Amino acid sequence: MGTPSQPASDRTAPSAQVLIVEDEHDHAEVMADALRKPGHVCTIVHGLEEASEELLHGSFDVIVTDLVMESATSGLEVLKLAGEHQPGAETIMVTAHGDVPTAKAALQGGAYDFIEKPLDLPVFRNLVGRAAETVLLRTQNEQLRGEVDAAYGFEGIIGESAAIRKVIDQIRKVAPSTIPVLVSGESGTGKELVAAAVHNISKRAARKYVTFNAAGQSESLLEDQLFGHVRGAFTGADKDRQGVFEYADGGTVFLDEIGDMPLGMQPKLLRVLENGDVIRLGSNDSRTTDVRFVSATNRDLKTMVESGEFRDDLFFRVRGAEIHVPALRERREDIPLLVNHAIGRYAADMDVDRPGITQPAMMRLVSYAWPGNVRELFNVVHAMVVISDGEITVRDVPEEIRESEQDEEHASMRGLAGVGLDRLEKEAIRQTLAMTNGNREQTAKLLGIGERTLYRKLKEYGLR
């Protein structure tokens, strides 16, 4: 959104990025001129194909589209594409008098409003202004929710680093649409939490959410589990059974470890994603389903496509939008938050007083590489809560983590022998700032000094 513009009528409306889709060139220019006066920025296209390109690659707050262009349903196609690629935008339909019933039906499909030709330009400007205000208010609410999420977690995702804020922002953007989502990242990073969040804040949140893991299963068992079977399809099939896709109809399917999907099963999965058709084992009849598809993998699907292990058409289909979950070592500043969250969680589960944790113990945890990511961190914290005596100290930290830190510390000390204390202090601050990605509050905590002292030291040593 831009800066406030001139009043659209008797109210001040924010300026907006507006896409105008109108096949009549003169009419499109009239609409654009009317909207540019109050400060809106307008992009004009003259058909569905051009609109599709802009919606795919551009960024808009309001979309104004004629209902009837190349066909009687062109405007509805624009509305559908806007929902998929510009879920935060509002769409206004422009229609002739005879098409008002269709325009009213478009409201049920997510349109903001409609307006009849010939346009009353002041009314038109006011309508676009109100749509822009709606988008701005929603954006402000999302920013506020983002601040709350940083403090209290978002759908179980804990962190306030730039990396994790990016993940949360991506979830919020893709969740309202129906586009397939691929969640990538190393094992233990929390991909299943991201998938669940996409469902929980989507329009399908009240419907079924079904998870299925493709790893370690034979092709025949996978086909039966995903697509179901009819009675007599194989020995022991004494009755019809729904598969995952039929069971989740209207909801979301989360397929974990999609990179382990056997090559023979991939075209059958592609068919479901392309048109919703499911054919049960032992049957020739297809059944139509409507599911939102989310998948996850810790493998490099691009490399698998190049080696022939994964179909390229399926890859492009499942990767409608990709959310990459960073490894824990790439967001070390979140480790204290995660540790404290886990301590509280496991203490509550055990019905014991919440133990504290010393700064040296926390430093060991922050400096460790965590090859098993958040899953490994939580397992370690759980064990430390069990064995601690009211406070978690370095003695409670697993030996392999202590030794990893000690080896690095001894190497650093050998390299710094004979160096002045001021340089040692400067280096400690510099390395801790790097470890926390410049988070001064966290740096002060890890160094065991006050924020005022840290600010003074930063100025003294010329650090940023």
Keywords:
Rossmann fold; five-stranded parallel beta sheet; Helicase, Ruva Protein, domain 3; 3 domains; 464 residues; 18 strands; 19 helices; flat; disordered N terminus; alpha/beta; 15% strand
Structure description:
Helices cover 48% and strands 15% of the residues. With 464 residues, the protein is α/β, with parallel strands linked by helices. It has three domains: 4-141, Response regulator (Rossmann fold, 3-Layer(aba) Sandwich), CATH 3.40.50.2300; 155-324, P-loop containing nucleotide triphosphate hydrolases (Rossmann fold); 329-461, Helicase, Ruva Protein, domain 3 (Orthogonal Bundle), CATH 1.10.8. β13 and β14 form a beta hairpin.
Rg result: 28 Å
Multimeric status of the protein: single chain
The end-to-end distance, rounded to whole angstroms, is 32 Å
* Residue share in β-strands: 15-25%
Remind me, CATH topology of the largest domain? Rossmann fold
Number of helices: 19
| CATH architectural label of the largest domain | 3-Layer(aba) Sandwich
> What do we call the CATH homologous superfamily of the largest domain?
P-loop containing nucleotide triphosphate hydrolases
Largest sheet: 5 strands, parallel
Question: Strand arrangement, largest sheet?
Answer: 4-3-5-6-7
Give the CATH class of the largest domain: Alpha Beta
Average pLDDT reading: 86
Helical proportion? 40-55%
